[in-house]
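User: Can you help me understand a structure? I only have the sequence.
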Amino acid sequence: MSSKPIVHVEGREFVMKQIFDAPKELVFQAFTEAERLKHWWGPRGWNLSTCKVDLREGGIWHYCMKCEDQAQGEFYGMESWGKGVYREIIPGERLVYTDYFSDAEGNEAEGMPATEVTLEFAEQDGKTKVTSRSVFESEEGLNSSLQMGMEQGIVETWERLGEYVEQQ
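Assistant: Let's start by predicting it. Here is the structure, written out as tokens:
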């Protein structure tokens, strides 16, 4: 069984670590293949209605999360578009990308904080430890994202990842 995520905030950096009960190759694929991302990316009640991955340095990951849970009230039916631009890819080991809020065409949303995300994948006793470091341009940008519910959203997203990889 996957562990619970450990979250740490310092300055303008949001760090999250979790051990997944799955092989490193599978966990890396879950982060980089559109067909796998569609099964788990997004908080509970949200699903990927669009997901395109061009996995190469300079390539783009463009997606849309849509709230499909009526119990989430005013969020029901809402869409949240995002775009990642890959900076570094070491298969099975490391993934670095800049994460942006975007629109349906992939244009970066003005006034919304961008994040430099580094994901590291390490084998640990037959399981996979993932460390995510999200560095914001400013502490204000990080605080703004936290106020929008980023921590709860990413914790739920990684819980869904744990459930997905354990079923594979």
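Now, to help you interpret it: The helical segments are 24-32, 34-37, 139-147, 150-167. The first helix runs from residue 24 to 32. Let me know which part you'd like to focus on.
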